[in-house]
Every structure is written in structure tokens, then in C-alpha cells.
Design goal:
- This protein has 4 helices and 9 strands; from the N terminus they run βββααβααβββββ.
- It has 229 residues and is of the alpha+beta class.
- Among the domains are: 29 residues; 102 residues.
- Strand 1 and strand 2 form a beta hairpin.
- The longest helix has 62 residues.
Length: 229
Amino acid sequence: MKYCPQCQQENPDEAGFCQKCGASLSAPAGQPEKSGLAIASLICGIFFFVLPSALLAVVFGHLSRSDIRRSGGRKTGGGMATAGLVLGYAGVMVIPLVLIIAAIAIPNLLRARMAANEASAVGSLRVINTAVVTYTAKYGSLPPSLVVLGPPPNGSESANAADLIDSVLASGTKSGYVFVYQVHGTEYGVMANPATQGTTGTRYFFLDQTGVVRVETSHPASAESPPIQ
């Protein structure tokens, strides 16, 4: 069928003039115009991995193909529209699958990360405990803070920079956990709390001069908390 470029009336393929308005059905002179909708469909199709773009590619592709058919040869771009449709439908089918996989994988990755952070926190508590014992034996008193257990800025060890733990742990934050060191006379305690509960870790830990690591699941641990299993 031929579409009249003037009134959009359908005409037989062999017709030379529109049966409704009499306009010529021959191909218009001059360079045909590229369909903007076809171009938009192809561009959106290229970015099909983004769900809105995939949907737009499908919509623009169908609109452009319809527009090109009705133009009577005045517009081109059918190939681009088809390519946009193929990419768009591919995106519409693939993206839900990707989202399902992500919904399964991301929580597992988060749990694995939290478990690793918790294991690191327990290990860091034991490192701090060893450092406190060593510092006390060497300098005759408990260290007043974590900072003094860290590395010296000039390479010379002292009571203010004993070089017993790394600089990251001495800062009080490591692997998603915040370490709080407190001294009470001849006793001390170290709390390890998740920086963001439920994201960097779920359990709270505590260690004191007994060397026993204790744990809580909903609030900071203390000397009265149960020992870690």
C-alpha cells in the first residue's frame, strides 16, 4: 500500500495519485529526512542496560516505524528503528534477570563482608590486648590511649609512640569497626562497635585485662556480656 504524503490515505501500490485528494504518490524530490524518533530509539537502545532507556527504545522504535510508513518516502531510518527495537527488547528481557541475580547476590555479599569485618574486629582486639600487656611491661603503666600504641613519626619508640599496633588501628577505626579504649585505675577495656550497625557489622565486642572477648548482638558489649563462642 502507498500512503498519501498529504492526507495519509492508503492507496493501491500501482496508484500514481491519491484517490482521496489527488496528490502525487511518486517519491518526493530531494533528500529524505531521517526520522528523529528512529535516532532516539537507537540511542536509547544502546543504553539498554538502563531499564527506562530500554523501554523508551521500544516505544520510540514502534512510533518511528509507523511515522516512516506514513511519510510516503519523506522520512527514512527504518534500520535504526529496528536496531533500537532489538536492543530495547533485549534490555527489557535481560534487566529483570540481572535484577533478580543482584537481589540474591548483594545480600550474600553484604553478609560475607560483615562476617569478615567481625572476624577482623576480634583479631584487632587480641592485637590491642597484646600491645597493652607489652606496653605495661615496658613502660610500667597502662597506655592512656590507643594512639600511644601506634608507630612513632620519627622512627624512635617511646611511651608516646610505642610502635605496637599499626597506624590504622591506632586511629580507632578499622575494617568497619570503631574501637574504644578506656582505662579505669589498673584495669582497662576495649569495645569494638560496628561503624554502621547492620552494614559494616552486626555484633558488638569487648575485651579487658582477662583476655576474654565478649559479645552482644543489639548493644555495646561489656565485662558482663557472654564470651564469644
